[in-house]
Design a protein that fits this description.
This protein is an alpha/beta fold and about 300 residues long. Helix content is about 55%, strand content about 15%. The chain has a single domain, classed as ATP synthase, F1 complex, gamma subunit (Pyruvate Kinase, Chain: A, domain 1, 3-Layer(aba) Sandwich), CATH 3.40.1380.10. About 30% of the residues are buried.
């Protein structure tokens, strides 16, 4: 019951960000020409030699296979990084000629379980955050976003990926890896579409297939683009963490339900065994009394 109540709060929080995400993406779409004209560091594609992975897990256990599934999916990509080392923006792709064994990985752990796993296996963890376990705020996400954005613009990493668990419904949670930087229209569109799936509906195009709106941009396209792109990165991080939290509480609710049912079955079995032993003792005592009575006669 506690997990179910928490799950409802987490799902409501995830859905609350959908309107902002849709509006931000509509502005992004209508400013696409400005993106092409005014190149920004967060759109720069480079040959992938070093990858930063943001891994979102829980702080505590008792949540079934929630942590195991996302870690397993991530490690599969780390050990066979043929797909994860491709940079893409829209239909453009940059393939890395770096051999798989020479590809470098660094990690940011969101959640204690992920940090413990990476630390125990000597992976390079540059930062750890464990305060996003329940209903984080956008302001709380900003230090994480600043690390990701600043390090990418400083060219410390050639690609940033986020590994999180996407909430579909109370029974289905899907571990996913998404390209965070360079900003990919395909990944943002898929993430916003996923928000529609969470709400039980598909996102609608507000322009209804019409041409993009002709904006008059002030103070300048460069400044607007420079302000908008970091907000989109924050939105992606924020939404991924909210989706993971909703998935965690959903899995925990099911795990606790299964544990409760298993405990009830165990109690019933123990009660049955107790009654059997009790009846055997009563029968044995009656037999002893009867035997003694017969012996006295």
């Amino acid at each position: 019951m506690v997990a179910a109540a928490k799950m409802k709060k987490e799902v409501a929080k995830a859905l609350a960000g959908k309107a902002y995400a849709h509006s931000a993406w509509n502005v992004l779409t209508n400013l696409s020409r400005a993106f092409e004209k005014y190149q920004h560091g967060l759109l720069e594609m480079r040959e992938v030699k070093k990858i930063l992975v943001v891994l979102v897990t829980s702080n505590r256990g008792l949540c079934g296979a929630y942590n195991t599934q996302i870690i397993k999916k991530l490690m599969k990509q780390v050990k066979a990084p043929s797909l994860i080392k491709i940079n893409r923006i829209g239909t453009r792709r940059v393939y890395s000629g770096v051999p798989d064994e020479k590809l470098e990985f660094c990690f940011i752990a969101v959640g204690k379980k992920g940090f413990q796993y990476l630390h125990n296996r000597d992976y390079d963890v540059i930062a750890a955050f464990d305060e996003f376990d329940y209903v984080p705020t956008v302001d709380a996400i900003r230090p994480l976003a600043q690390i990701v954005i600043n390090d990418y613009e400083a060219k410390k990493y050639d690609k940033v990926v986020i590994a999180y668990t996407d909430y579909k419904n109370a029974l289905i949670q899907e571990p996913k890896l998404r390209q965070l930087l360079p900003i990919s229209r395909i990944d943002i569109e898929k993430q916003i579409e996923g928000m529609g799936d969470t709400a039980g509906e598909k996102p609608q195009n507000e322009n209804n297939g019409e041409e993009s709106i002709g904006y008059k941009i002030e103070p300048s396209p460069r400044e607007v683009v420079g302000s908008l792109l970091p907000r989109l990165v924050e939105m992606q991080l924020y939404h991924a963490i909210l989706e993971s939290n909703a998935s965690r509480e959903s899995v925990r609710m099911i795990a606790m339900k299964n544990a409760t049912e298993a405990a009830s079955d165990m109690v019933s079995q123990l009660q049955y065994s107790y009654n059997q032993i009790r009846q055997m003792n009563i029968t044995r005592e009656i037999a002893e009394v009867t035997s003694g009575r017969i012996a006295l006669e």
